[in-house]
Structures are given as C-alpha cells and as structure tokens.
Amino acid sequence: MGIMENAVVLLCKRGDVSCDVLLERTLSFQSLMTKLFAKWKDLSEGSFSLSYSFAGHPKCLLESDEDLCVLYALTLSSRTECVDVAVKDLVDTSTVSTVVDVCSSSGDVGCDQLVLLDSVGTRVDLLPSFSGTNNSKVLKSAGKRYGELSSNLMECFDNWIKKERSLPITLLFDKIRLKIMEQMSARRSASMKWKGVICPIMEKKFKGLFNVSKTWAISRSSDDLYEVRCDPSVSVNISSRSCSCGEWQINSFPCAHAFCALKRGGKNLNDYVDHYYSVDAFHHTYSKSINPIPIIWKDVSVGSDVNVLLPPLCNKRPPGRPQTERIPSTGVKSRKITCGRCGQVGRHNRARCKEPLQH
C-alpha cells in the first residue's frame, strides 16, 4: 500500500526494534500510544517517553495531540517523509515488567498502594514500610518526604540573613558561618533537656490527633487490620504501617486514623514513629559543631584602604510596588487571630486593622 499524500512515516525505535507508524493530520496521540502498546507488550502508560529531533529543534518531546500537530507542521515545511522517534524507557525493563495499582483485600497490600511486578512476578512496594529497620527490598528511588514543605526555603534563608545581605561577600560568608554555629549550639543545648522519646513538637501533634479522632468509631478485622469509621471511612494496617488515606506512608508519622487503631490495639505510639522524629536522631543531627576561625593568624597588614568589590549601583527602581508579604506554600495553615478593634477573625490585629467601625 503506498503512502498517502501529506503523510509521514514515524520510525519509532526502541533498542534494536523499530515500529513504523503513519503520521497523518487526523492521527491522535492516543492512537499513536495504542499502536506502540500493540508492538511492545511490556510498555505501559507513564513508563516511557517519546522524542524526536529536527534541524534547529533537538530532542523535542511527544506528549500530546498538540505535539503531534507541531511535528506534522515541521514535516510539511521541510518536506520530510520519515522521522526517527526515540522510545526511551523510564524504568529498567530488565527487572520490571509493569507498574500496576493494586487494591488487595488480603491485608498484605493496602489500597491505593503503587507496586512493581518484577520479572518473576514478585511484588515490590514503592512505598517504604517505615519500620525503622534496614529493608533492602525497598526501592531507594521511593525516598521519604516526612511531610516537609521546602518551596520557600531560599526565601526563609534570605530573610534570616536580612541584616547581613549588604555586606561584601567575604564578610557575608563569615556572618553566615557565625549564625549557623550559634544556631547549632543553641539547638544542641535545648535538646539536651528533652526527656521524651520523640521530639516535643511531635508529642504535641499526638495530642492534636487525639482531639480530632476522639469521636470516631473503630472496628477490628484482625490483629493488625482496622476500619476507622469517619468521613470517609478508611482502612488501617498496623503491620505494614499504611493507611488508605496515604498520609502515614508519606509522612512516616501515624495519621489520625492510625492513631485510633494504635490506641484500640493497645500499641505503644512511639514504636510506630519513624526514627527521623526521635530525640536521638535530633541529637545526632546537631552532635557536630562548626569550628571557630580565629583571625590571629591572618595578615594584619591588610587595612581598610584595600579596594573592596561592592555590588553595582542601581539608579532605577523596578516598576511596581515591592512585595512585603511572603507567598504561602501549598498546604501551609495560617493561624487565625481575633482583632481587638473590630472583633473580626482574620490575619490582622488592632495595629493593622483598617475595617470601618459601625456605631
């Protein structure tokens, strides 16, 4: 069968195997994916990427119908009849055959858990067990997040050195060294007074979980499997340290549902908290210290008349008003306060209140 007019052949290459697909104006991205799935049975959605190269357009990705339209327009403008498309695996296909979303009722694998099936059909859980022990079967790429938000890390650090930012670079580094040295020493001294097993801020969180979950009903299915009837109801597996809400697996800290199940089973809450939150881990983090750098051995002949490279002067201010408030990260909960002037609940107090008063 001959090639139709204004049609291009996509030569999809994966390793030493190729697959020819006819690119027409009406070809959709989903149709292209279906043809690739029929050629390579071990491919699954999200496990590979498609890319091509043109003169002046290196390594262009194919991810949507719009990308196919762009590729079709490029072939028409350059009068190209064949385009090489690289099919690149995002996972190691020699050990992993497919990625599936498993919802098992046996209790071994909880709902909404992402697992891998290796070449012999063995399940490998992508979510760590968070048991605190050395588990070599857990994939290193899964990692642990502990529920930390870090999108504004540089903004917080910039505000921390607000007074030192205008200094020359050498003095700035020395001031940062002193601030970190004092901070580590202060945290190390404060942690020596802690008597509990986990850090005080996490003990306070346990109290908050009790207030949230004290009205929930709990049903036991087995020694380690519970159903917490709330809105919505969830399943908690104590042995695998998992909850169908997913919060326990991500934060490595029992969620409110797991808190109920642990209390019902008479478990020690501290035994089901990751070592990351323990006082011992905090002590180990700040056990080292930054050594002082005395200036007694420095060259004292260097005076203040030495030329110092200063930042360039900026005579023109950028347009618009400078931002005065931080941009909150997703998931950050702001504390509401009651204004003593207008009595409204919000983020302003008496000094910053601009609400009109009604007499």
UniProtKB/TrEMBL annotation:
Residues 234-266 form the SWIM-type domain. GO terms for molecular function: zinc ion binding. InterPro entries: Znf_PMZ, Znf_SWIM. The keyword Aminoacyl-tRNA synthetase does not apply. Keywords: Metal-binding, Zinc, Zinc-finger. SMART domains: ZnF_PMZ (SM00575). PANTHER family: MUTATOR TRANSPOSASE MUDRA PROTEIN, POLYPROTEIN, PUTATIVE-RELATED. This is SWIM-type domain-containing protein. It comes from Rhododendron griersonianum.
